[in-house]
Amino acid sequence: MRAVLMAGGSGTRLRPLTCDLPKPMVPVLNRPIAEHIINLLKRHDITEVIATLHYLPDVMRDYFQDGSDFGVQMTYAVEEDQPLGTAGCVKNIAELLDDTFLVISGDSITDFNLTEAIKFHKEKGSKATLVLAHVPNPIEFGVVITDKNGMIRRFLEKPSTSEIFSDTVNTGTYILEPEVLEYLPSNQECDFSQDLFPLLLEEGEPMYGYIGQGYWCDVGHLDAYRDAQYDALYGKVNLEFAYHQKSPGLWVGQNTYIDPTVKIETPALIGDNCRIGPRVMVEAGTAIGDNVTIGADADLKRPIIWNGAIVGEEANLSACVTARGVRIDRRAHILEGAVVGSLSNIGEEALINTSVRVWPSKKIESGATLNINLIWGNTAQRNLFGQRGVSGLANIDITPEFAVKLGAAYGSTLKPGSQVTVSRDQRGISRMVSRSLIAGLMSVGTNIQNLEATAIPLARSIIPTLSVVGGIHVRVHPDRPDALLIEFFDEQGINISKAREKKIEGAYFKEDFRRSQINEIGNMSYPSQVIELYSAGFEKYLNVEAIRHSRAKVVIDYMYAVYGAVLPLLLAKFGVDAVVLNASLSQTAPSSAEREDLLIQLGRVVEAVKASFGVQVSANGEQLILVDESGAPIRGEMLTALMVSLVLTSYPRGTVVVPVHTSSAIEQIARRHDGRVIRTKANPTALMEACHTNSNVVLGGSGEMGFIFPQLHPGFDAMFCIAKVIEMMTLQERSLMQIRSDLPHVSHKSYTVRCPWRVKGALMRHLVETHPTESLELVDGVKIFQYPHSDDWVLILPDAGEPLVHIFINSPDREWVDQALWNYRSQVQKFVAQAQDGMGNSANR
């Protein structure tokens, strides 16, 4: 049997260790990860290995050569021009794979029983068998669901935090029949998880998941690398040591001298040809490579020291990684989580602070303190994008320096000379950050269409009319007046996809920025007639005559935002009698408590002036709360149902798009009007994409996020919604109170439970495994129906940004809702508590 060793990755998240080294050649126990994989293959009688190479291919070829020194036969397939993806590079060598073969990732540490996995594959008659593992936090892996026989029913590649429905993940080890490669195109980039496996599932080819027993760690980032190293030393994974075990837990190489005064705690690893000076302290978990010199009185608290390093007298290294040939002078300190790239020089009494990364061949002056990464700039947190866009505390997380770098990262993912729009709300902090983003964009050769301060619906609607590839909008966060939200749009005005977000994150963290020549620096222009263009679309999709003859009186609370300068102009064209509140642009954004006070004030004004209704607009023109003629607010589920009722009455047989957790009142309303309901993941991008890609959509969104009228533009638009409500109320001759009283009676409750990130995947898998398949829906989270397609359901939805799980209960029967909420709240809390106890006991062991 042949094995394909996937060794093409550059290991960008292991930088600076992989600047001059492919990820499979990163050492664990002083031997490359790839060598441990080859040893595993050899233990299971697989001795023909084909390595697919792309990044620095000569490093692996020079090390393994023909494989004879390692007991295998090695051949190599190099992707010369561009990466072909995990499946594309295997398709490229299809002529060498004429029988069942195994594909294994070159960047994982494992001791899985491959013999049993192959036996399982053959017994099941599988065309493709994925070796799976249970992990505490599955967000960075492909999540898989199998039935009780192991047949794969569903998988999702690298889900967002709200999409986790299991903790069973794809380990990147596959047993395949050669005919599955016929489904792949030749000489094209394609991926097993994203392209081949979904196609096999769709074609009904037998595909199984084998849950591996043993250890598995994807060495995908620096924390995982350290964990794998420590786990190997502590014997949690069955790896072969290259050195003699001198005493229990202490492995020492040949020709190594250790001064008799050295104190060593075990487990520890010391390579060949090392010199350890007097009174050195070696703490348990320390790994020292070959040809390393440690000066007298050095203190080693679990560092990972690669080959050829020199550590000076009285130096202090704490749980850090120092790469090949690093020199650390006397009394230097390298703190926990720090990484020093190969051939760097750390001066005497210098301090490398916690988690700081130093790229290869850098020099740190004597006595210097390094608090930021030394590349050619600095770096920030590990993940940029949250549920929607990039957010953080204003001028603390989101600073001018951060924004310049973010703009450069985004621009570097675009072609030189591309054009993007930049817009913002009217706040001073947003102006400052947008200018910094513009500077970063222009520095990498991106041209700017500056929309300046404008409502976000205008910014989205103008994008398709300009020759731009996307846009950025900066505003005060809708839910936090002390935070900023930066959103990125595609060429249609929809929030960019997760794949695009990952590209920007990659450029940001690698600091892989294009540096433009002076004559290539981006330029900036200011589009004219933005309001006029938006207004034309506004009028096109309204029954203007109905609004003009409505005699509607509307009270609008602008909450001191920029749309207060736009909406009155639009409504005035239609003769709407609008009473305006809080339209000043100089006031600061109100807090949550202040919003509630303003809403009470709005209700009183609506009653006092006998208005048709009132509206509080927020989120820079995206969201709204209605107030009926009695002054009572309409929001949340009630607002969603009311808007669906209004729109489907005007557009029967239309399609509405709502998030997965919305009340089943929507389906009941749709049945009255022969309409169709599409439910999406509970995030704004999913709603926008569904509204754009499905036909005959007349409304999308929810009371929490806002409403989309896709014929106008693909985003949420409270301003158009106000005009549309006036139009529909006039034509239907109904007031908001009348519409409200006619809505279906459905009980819909929610509850939030704290749930650590490491428990979320296990909880979702537990729910899937303990309920019959026919009663489950996995659009987002796990939805459990009392019986198929009923209005009685429970949704367990992991929060995308916090260690929380949300429980939604829905039924026309209030008693059933109360009982189900109590039951599932208790179940979830019990599972979380038991899982945490298990984690604590494991840590103690």
Q: Can you offer a commentary on this structure?
A:
With about 850 residues, this protein is α/β, with parallel strands linked by helices. The chain is about 30% helix and about 25% strand. The strands form 11 sheets. An 8-stranded mixed sheet has the order 14-15-18-21-24-27-30-33. The chain starts with a strand and ends with a helix.
Sequence of strands across the biggest β-sheet:
14-15-18-21-24-27-30-33
Distance between the termini: 39 Å
In the predicted model, the low-confidence regions spanning at least 5 consecutive residues are: 376-382
Strand content: 25-35%
Q: Which structural class do you get from the secondary structure elements?
A: alpha/beta
> Total number of β-strand segments?
55
Instruction: Determine Rg (CA atoms, Å).
Output: 30 Å
Mean pLDDT: 90
Sum up the overall morphology in one term. Answer: globular
Give the % helix.
Answer: 25-40%
Instruction: Tally the helices.
Output: 21
Largest sheet: 8 strands, mixed
